[in-house]
Amino acid sequence: MLTWFMLNFQDASSAVMEQLIFFHDFAMIVIIFIWALVGVNLLFICYFQFTYRFFNQEQTVETIWTVVPIFILLAIALPSLRVLYFLDDSFDSYLTMKVMGHQWYWSYEYPYFKNLSFDSYMIPTKDLMTGEFRLLETDNSLVIPVSMQVRMIVSAGDVIHAWAVPSLGLKVDAVPGRLNQINFMVNRCGIFYGQCSEICGSNHSFMPIKLEVVPMSYFISWLGNLEL
Ligand SMILES: [Cu+2]
């Protein structure tokens, strides 16, 4: 893959991530505008002599360059707050799952379905099949239905971990003795990867998150095929 594309966000697969990318792009436009304005001013100051012997004060200009940044900051702060509230909004969820971080694997629980639970370990590089991603594949991956509001309860068994899936805009700390929750809905089928995002020990890099998002009918047959 080209390095340039690796600098971008992954394609958004949930409404939350779409909002985050919109906000990022908007904030970047404002930042580039300010950067250009200041840059041009610096050049002018370097090359021209803006001096005036009788210059003492200029109230109008000072008022303008105080008030304009206030509005610019407001224009950034308000959409930012909107996204912040959107991230934490607990919509009615139809499926609740629990994820526990361990040194160094994740374990998932589906309390709605016969207390289904399993551990998810990384597949070592030597065991990978062709086309699989190094350090990202797991032996058991999380399976969830598409277009369904899911609530994920996140905690940890030993040290602090963080459960994160960038293309879904998910990142939540897994803290021992504390239940954090995150709500999300994936709006397309596919396989999504993430990694532990809290330095949690020597194998921190080797506890990936793999999410298989499938249609509801597949999800039901997957549950039916499990030997519980
Ligand atoms: Cu971890």
From TrEMBL:
GO cellular component: mitochondrial inner membrane
InterPro entries with a match to the protein in the record: CcO_II (IPR045187), CcO_II-like_C (IPR002429), CcO_II_C (IPR034210), Copper_CuA (IPR001505), Cupredoxin (IPR008972), Cyt_c_oxidase_su2 (IPR014222), Cyt_c_oxidase_su2_TM_dom (IPR011759), Cyt_c_oxidase_su2_TM_sf (IPR036257)
Cofactor(s) required, per the database record: Cu cation
CC cofactor note: Binds a copper A center.
GO molecular-function terms, A-Z: copper ion binding; cytochrome-c oxidase activity; oxidoreductase activity
Membrane topology annotation: Multi-pass membrane protein
Location of the Cytochrome oxidase subunit II copper A binding domain: 92-225
Keywords: Copper, Electron transport, Magnesium, Membrane, Metal-binding, Mitochondrion, Mitochondrion inner membrane, Respiratory chain, Translocase, Transmembrane, Transmembrane helix, Transport
Catalytic reaction annotation: 4 Fe(II)-[cytochrome c] + O2 + 8 H(+)(in) = 4 Fe(III)-[cytochrome c] + 2 H2O + 4 H(+)(out)
UniProt-listed GO biological process terms: ATP synthesis coupled electron transport
SUPFAM superfamilies linked to this entry: Cupredoxins, Cytochrome c oxidase subunit II-like, transmembrane region
Residue ranges of every copy of the Cytochrome oxidase subunit II transmembrane region profile domain listed in the record: 1-91
Summary of subunit composition and partner proteins: Component of the cytochrome c oxidase (complex IV, CIV), a multisubunit enzyme composed of a catalytic core of 3 subunits and several supernumerary subunits. The complex exists as a monomer or a dimer and forms supercomplexes (SCs) in the inner mitochondrial membrane with ubiquinol-cytochrome c oxidoreductase (cytochrome b-c1 complex, complex III, CIII).
Role according to the record: Component of the cytochrome c oxidase, the last enzyme in the mitochondrial electron transport chain which drives oxidative phosphorylation. The respiratory chain contains 3 multisubunit complexes succinate dehydrogenase (complex II, CII), ubiquinol-cytochrome c oxidoreductase (cytochrome b-c1 complex, complex III, CIII) and cytochrome c oxidase (complex IV, CIV), that cooperate to transfer electrons derived from NADH and succinate to molecular oxygen, creating an electrochemical gradient over the inner membrane that drives transmembrane transport and the ATP synthase.
Family, as annotated: Belongs to the cytochrome c oxidase subunit 2 family.
Protein name, entry field: Cytochrome c oxidase subunit 2
Species assigned in the record: Metacrangonyx remyi
Lineage: Eukaryota, Metazoa, Ecdysozoa, Arthropoda, Crustacea
